[in-house]
Amino acid sequence: MTATAGSPSASVPSPERLAVPRTGPDRGTVPPAIARSRPARGFVRTAVSVAIVAAIFGFALPRFASYGSVLSSMSTMTWPQALLVGAAAGASMVSAWIVICSVLPSIRLREAAVVNLGSNAVANTLPAGGALAMGVSWAMLSSWGVSMADYVLYTMVSGIWNVFARLGLPVLALLLLVTISRPGAGLVVAAGVGLDAHLFYKLNRLMKDRAGMMAYYSKAWHLWWTHRMRYFEAEFTSDGGPTQREARLSEMLAVRINHFGGVLRELAPGASLARNDLRLILCRTGSRARYLAYVFRGVLGLSGGVRGIELAYADQVTCRPIAEEKPENIYVEADGELLGRLPITLSLVPDALTLLVPKGHPSLLR
User: Fold this and answer.
1) Quick check: pTM over 0.85?
2) Over 80: is that where the pLDDT of 266 sits?
3) Fewer CB atoms near the end CB (10 Å): N or C, the chain?
4) Bridge partners of 319?
């Protein structure tokens, strides 16, 4: 038995028929141009993404926030505080992902995270970001098989509950504030009850920021002409003595300094930070002319008093509405900040603050 063998032959395919194995399940072939273009597209997308992130954090965010301020705030936090803030931020993000998975059961938690973080990044960084974020989220969800009807349902449900949460949480905060006790306020310079506090209640913050002291002067003149005096009662003690009662006051100031600076000089003669008591200005009168006379007495530095306006020292003073009269809103301020309404108790804590002043300073000799 014989066998013959010819020379081996090999056929070389043309270059356009060269193929590379496909990595997919069909085990077919992919043209080389497509095989080479996919890594290139991935590289371009990655580069564009990195450039956008760098532009946001390098140019956009510094225009609205200061990295230095953020770092200084974080440096003052303890490790437990920092961990608590981080845990709260993480829980907030994860809760949004769980909502997405609840509305769209076909979406996994990882995909919900991608949708939430991607759409939020677009909404918070780009102009008209809210509308663009909806397009981004729809593009992602539709690529994962979510229908238009399911997407509309997801948008409506999550949007409605977001609105309810944003409206409901402030209401809950107000309810909590109502149930807790009112905190005490530290008094450094002066506190006022009545017309003085009503000035700060009526003063517009924007006007105060723009006009400065002129806003105070103009509003004070307006109230002097138009405000209806509202009366309250007060009780105070001095140096452990008996309680003194003022049955009907239209204004009371509790002052710690004797010189306010500017045009208003000595408003409360005898007041001093070196003393362990309050200097009270008790206005029993409702006369606008006497109010004005007392203020001008301080502006001009004149001695002597004004009828219906008395001075007294007190360790503690309590002001409350008059029980027999119609309840009215009588406000309280301390150091120019509105504290609230009557009743209120002002007291002095001896030696709670230590000041370093030059020896023989005039304020220590008064």
Assistant:
1) no
2) no
3) N
4) 234, 344
